[in-house]
Amino acid sequence: MDGEEENVGPFRRTSTRTRRMATRMASALASSDNRAQAALARLEALESDNAGVEVVDLNDDEYGSTDEEDPVLMQKKQSKIMKRKTRQGKALEKRAARSFMDVLQETEPFIRSAMVEAHATPATPFSPPTGLHKYIAIFLVVLSWILVHKWSLRKQKGPRSWPVIGATVEQLRNYHRMHDWLVEYLSKHRTVTVDMPWTSYTYIADPVNVEHVLKTNFTNYPKGDVYRSYMDVLLGDGIFNADGELWRKQRKTASFEFASKNLRDFSAIVFREYSLKLSGILSQASKAGKVVDMQELYMRMTLDSICKVGFGVEIGTLSPDLPENSFAQAFDAANIIVTLRFIDPLWRLKRFFHVGSEALLEQSIKLVDEFTYSVIRRRKAEIVEARASGKQEKIKHDILSRFIELGETGEDGGGLGDDKSLRDVVLNFVIAGRDTTATTLSWFTYMAMSHPDVAEKLRRELCAFEAERAHEEGVALVPCGPDADDKSFAARVAQFASLLNYDSLGKLVYLHACVTETLRLYPAVPQDPKGILEDDVLPDGTKVRAGGMVTYVPYSMGRMEYNWGADAASFRPERWINEDGAFRNASPFKFTAFQAGPRICLGKDSAYLQMKMALAILCRFYRFQLLEGHPVEYRMMTILSMAHGLKLRVSRAV
User: Fold this and answer.
1) Annotation-wise, does 619 bind a ligand?
2) Spatial distance between the Cα atoms of 198 and 166, rounded to a whole number of angstroms
């Protein structure tokens, strides 16, 4: 039997051991219960039948002697032998599975009867304890269930799945590095299935599958009820969490605003203003030799920017004294906790009892709502005041004002004008305009520090751009050497910033390539799950079931060699520049940092505008050095922010 088991696979070996255990238990029962005799006989017959299976031997006469000297002929014979063994093994696996299931079906009435008698029949001195029947029956049922479960998962690609809990244990063990954990699996299998207690996640990294989900069969993959249930407390019915008609209404309004030249020009002015404020803070830190947390500063800059561009209010978090920002802290805490819900099977229980992370989430959302509703009230009051004074021109044309007006006139078709809906609009645009942009800026700065050759090449492009643009505009640049005073330095920075606008920034090809390369390796949204309305088959043949989740993984996709070549893990901005020196685009289903299909990011151009505006100024006039020993790791939340911030020292570069 040893030779046979070696060639017929793990199920054959497992089922053989299981049948032997089942035979011994059935024998014990049969000694006192005639109804078990049939089951015992059937098990023994199955054991005897499989014991007599022919096993191919190398000395089998059909294949001749193994002493054959001709190596070519010998190789052919061995090949035939292995093929026959393989066919034999597969046949044995199928027969073993089929026979064992037949035995289970035959013994089911006996097991049920034994369980009943265990409760109803009193024990006698001449029979085994009635409880034994029950325990043996339960053991057989559980053992059979485990075997069938393992058999069903024999071809599954992904982490090992256990009954009831799925892959929860492995996922929790790797939670702090989940994105890299997925990279390891997706580099071997382009599609990976991860079972969880109440649902199943299918992770995809193949552009063909991504296009199918995000475009070809878009309607079958909404955000879904599961995702909404996790994120509802934070994002509500906002554009990132909505589906159907509500999503279409918000997208239509937002797309109209983002397409407006007025908004684009206004955004450029605001982004320049806050980039200069950030430059002033860095200049003082450089002079004082202070350590700064660039991620925190970027978060402040982008929050101030989105509040002014999106909601028409100034909140002043980037003031020189850097005031405490309770909203940002609460928003980040809420973001972390709702992300944890995706793998925490007890979050609903904790929410019900108001304990643990869910209690903290409730407190954080309260602070977030206080800030958000105050912004809404302020904008509504300003609109009312402008109308009362007859000065309609004072009504700001920001995104929030547009939604307020639509709600008042009924143009939105209902559902967007109440404060709760406006609150959801605000928070969704905050996460889009603050977190994603600040996160990308942080990773860009880290990449520039880690690749000094890239930083130097970028600085040369910026210096050449400055000279060319100053000549075009007839601007006499303020002399600014290493020993320049604060006033001269600030004036030179302001001059350079005045040369930056939407059109001129388009000339900075290498800067654009550096930002895009950062997004390839460190996408602001590292993974994006979708619900499944109906059963479907992905282009690679993977079956997905209704009620489950399909998640495309930008973080993993950017590191796959089958997407980007052998140097996929390397930071190389040159991959985005063609032979003519122009920017080279990639398929949005391969480079998914801004999504693709009907849900492609509306703020893509605005995000590039703000990032390039800030980085052009900072990379032209400053050098950064990471604080020695400072850990740079991502934090598990919906956005790929840095867990410990980005602490560094800054110095002027003129």
Assistant:
1) no
2) 9
